[in-house]
Design a protein that fits this description.
The protein has about 100 residues and is an all-alpha fold. It contains 4 helices and no strands.
């Protein structure tokens, strides 16, 4: 089978044998994926900021030193880290 024959048969199969999602449903699913992607990227950004504070020492210094006031961002980061630790702990215990 030559490459040209293979390409022609492939296009014929795509045109005649594949059931495509209706256009309106495809648009709705695209919107769902876009919204989920934005929400997930915001979550990853918040987690990144939380771990960035931990790694740079800002979060630990805020709790131990007292010179740096604990802001809402620090509280949020502690909550995010606690949620991640809880999820990891529960997933680990489910596997056993």
């Amino acid at each position: 089978m030559s490459v040209i024959t293979y390409i022609k048969e492939s296009f014929g199969e795509l045109k005649n044998n594949v059931t495509w999602t209706p256009w309106a449903e495809a648009q709705n699913l695209t919107i769902v994926v876009a919204v989920f992607s934005i929400i997930f990227s915001l979550f990853v950004w918040i987690v990144d900021m939380a771990f960035g504070d931990v790694i740079s020492g800002n979060l630990i210094e805020a709790f131990t030193n007292g010179d740096i006031p604990i802001t809402g961002a620090h509280i949020r980061n502690v909550v995010v880290i606690a949620i991640i630790a809880f999820v990891v702990a529960t997933q680990t215990t489910k596997k056993k």
